[in-house]
Specification:
By secondary structure, this protein is an alpha+beta fold. The protein is built from 11 helices and 10 strands. The strands form 3 sheets. A 4-stranded mixed beta sheet has the order 1-4-5-8, with helices on one face. A 4-stranded antiparallel beta sheet has the order 2-3-7-6, with no helix packed on it. The longest helix has about 35 residues. The protein starts with 7 loop residues before the first helix and ends with a helix. The structure holds flavin-adenine dinucleotide.
Length: about 375
């Protein structure tokens, strides 16, 4: 089915981005997965070509392409031809917009241009060893002093945790009120800001996910984002876009896993015929093809709504829930239809299966998505 909402400019952008991936990313994927990290220079290469913070205005180093479709295109191409563990979208479209939406002019001027060139890499730290889904349960605290805030706590599972130069850290700012949270821009080199282990994961092997520690870190007041009491509201507002990003990625990965499997079953033979000729294969792929097409229409519609500033939290939650669950079904069926080959790392379906497992957990788990949707249905 023809996808709606894409024009010639989008197609040109897609071609240019794909060419970048084919030249700079594809040949290095395996090495990055083995190293467990994408070299920092890759952010700078992307920045030099204008592919970071494409939405930012020119004054801040962007291209002024606020239309989310451009990020959607990049996420889709990353899934097809790039490396899904290279978290430039987290840097560009998940964290940097906090500075635009909630930061002041001085903060925007100070950080956005360096983020657009890739000199400064961003991360966001909400999750803690004892609090993930329940953000209000976090223990990290910030206490106000004369000209700074004193930050203490620990965060975990932080993406870009090793490469990140500026980490947006969520911390409680009022011991009397657990829902009062502030957002603090903590910079590499600030005394008391330490990186812990780089965590070994099931998949996403090129992604540098890490623990972070904050021991009596003096965060200057000019590094506080917006109102130090309203961080939870800022996070909730921004999680809508985060879930859309996640949905676009899950669906793109699912589309790729489906195509891989379709090609494989058309090649592989058993009992004198192609695997594609067994009714089980045909029905399995027919079911998935139908679900993928329906999901694509819904996600593209969510992108339109987001561009119009009308994407609700529950619509974004539906998109994330449906696409991440579908991604899991596609990968599981893909591995099954590949037989033993599907269990081998050298087959792409195996890597995609492993990379996909986290989609139902991060950016809000499927259970949390159901809670959000249920609230919209039942109150
Ligand atoms: C690879 C990876 C990258 C990540 N990157 C980042 C990052 O950059 N920054 C960041 O801050 N965090 C990051 N996270 C953390 C991620 O967002 C959390 O892991 C996720 O929100 C779940 O929190 P949790 O791990 O504490 O699980 P828990 O909250 O302990 O949940 C455990 C289980 O209980 C279920 N559960 C919890 N509450 C409810 C409920 N109310 N109703 C029903 N079931 C419930 C959950 O769905 C889950 O199945 C990352 C995680 C991973 C794995």
């Amino acid at each position: 089915m023809q996808r709606l909402g894409f024009c010639t400019e989008h197609d040109i952008f897609r071609e240019a981005y794909r060419a970048f991936l084919q030249k700079e990313v594809q040949p290095n994927k395996q090495a990055w997965r083995q190293a467990g990290i994408v070299p920092r220079e890759m952010f700078q290469k992307m920045g030099a070509l204008g592919f970071l913070l494409v939405w930012a205005d020119e004054e801040h180093g962007g291209l002024g392409l606020w239309d989310f479709r451009y990020q959607q295109i990049m996420i889709e191409e990353d899934n097809r031809f790039g490396e899904v563990g290279f978290y430039h979208t987290l840097h560009s479209r998940l964290v940097a917009p906090y500075i635009t939406h909630f930061g002041n002019a001085a903060q925007q001027q100070r950080w956005l241009p360096r983020c657009a060139t890739g000199e400064t890499i961003l991360a966001i730290a909400m999750t803690e060893p004892d609090a993930g889904s329940d953000l209000a349960g976090m223990k990290t605290r910030a206490q106000e002093r004369s000209d700074h805030w004193l930050l203490n706590g620990a965060k975990t599972y932080i993406s870009n945790g090793i490469n990140g130069d500026v980490v947006l850290v969520a911390a409680k700012t009022n011991p009397e009120n657990p829902r009062q949270i502030g957002l603090f821009l903590v910079e590499r080199g600030m005394p008391g800001f330490e990186r812990g282990r780089q965590l070994e994961k099931m998949g996403l092997h090129a992604q540098d996910t890490a623990e972070l520690f904050f021991n009596e870190v003096r965060v200057p007041k000019e590094n506080v984002l917006g109102d130090s009491a309203l961080g939870l509201q800022y996070l909730k507002a921004s999680l809508v876009e985060e879930r859309l990003i996640s949905a676009v990625g899950s669906l793109a990965n699912a589309q790729c896993g489906f195509a891989l499997t379709r090609d494989y079953v058309n090649e592989r033979r058993a009992f004198g015929k192609k695997i594609a000729d067994f009714q089980n294969t045909r029905f399995t792929l027919a079911d998935l093809a139908a679900d993928l097409e329906v999901a694509q229409v819904y996600v593209d519609r969510c992108v339109d709504l987001h561009n119009a500033g009308e994407l609700s939290a529950h619509s974004a939650a539906k998109a994330k829930l449906v696409t991440s669950e579908l991604e899991a079904r596609v990968m599981d069926a893909g591995v099954q239809l590949h037989g033993g080959a599907g269990y081998m790392q050298e087959y792409e379906i195996c890597q995609r299966f492993l990379d996909a497992r986290v989609s139902r957990i991060f950016a809000g788990s499927s259970e949390i998505m159901k809670e959000i949707i249920a609230r919209s249905v039942l109150g």
